[in-house]
Amino acid sequence: QVLLVESGGGLVQAGGSLRLSCAASGGTFSSWNMGWFRQVPGKERDFVAYIRRSAGTTYYADSVKGRFTVSRDNAKNTVYLQMNSLKPEDTAVYYCAADTGFSLHIPLQAESTYDYWGQGTQVTVSS
């Protein structure tokens, strides 16, 4: 069974930074596409960023572009989300997700693409 565990959330003031981590186990992490999503209270779960398998290309939602960076360390089976210049509107529960399938042309911005999800970690940005 694939297991994803997020960590690194917390309370930070506007303009500050946090780094989220997602530790993966149960499979060949280097072959997985990894995504970050967030869910604001009362709203849908929204795409934040993804990184393709084998440390490939990255992509970001417009709302976080230039402020967030997704990266991965395949030796540690871990994906990261570095969040800088945080804003109160970034407050959400952040989820790590793994696409463990073998499709080569898939919409990595879509929640339905991913097979496994972490439990989420709360990020709260105060003003």
Low-confidence stretches: none
**SS content category:** mainly beta
Strand composition percent: over 45%
> Which bin fits the share of residues in helices?
under 10%
In DSSP terms (H or I, runs of 4 or more residues), the helix count works out at 0
Strand and helix order: EEEEEEEEEEE
Strand runs, count? 11
| First-to-last CA distance | 40 Å
Please tell me what the overall shape is.
Answer: globular
The gyration radius over C-alpha positions equals 14 Å
Mean pLDDT: 95
- Oligomer description: single chain
Biggest sheet architecture: 7 strands, mixed
Explain what this protein looks like in three dimensions.
The protein is an all-beta fold. The protein is built from no helices and 11 strands. The chain has strands at residues 3-7, 10-13, 18-25, 33-39, 45-51, 58-60, 68-73, 78-83, 92-99, 116-117, 121-126. Strands 2, 4, 5, 6, 9, 10 and 11 form a 7-stranded mixed beta sheet that branches. It starts with a strand and ends with a strand. The model has no long low-confidence stretch (mean pLDDT 95).
Short description:
It is built from no helices and 11 strands.
Features:
127 residues; globular; four-stranded antiparallel β-sheet; seven-stranded mixed β-sheet; mainly beta
List the helices and strands and how they pair.
Elements: E1 3-7, E2 10-13, E3 18-25, E4 33-39, E5 45-51, E6 58-60, E7 68-73, E8 78-83, E9 92-99, E10 116-117, E11 121-126
Parallel strand pairs: 2-11
Antiparallel strand pairs: 1-3, 3-8, 4-5, 4-9, 5-6, 7-8, 9-10, 9-11
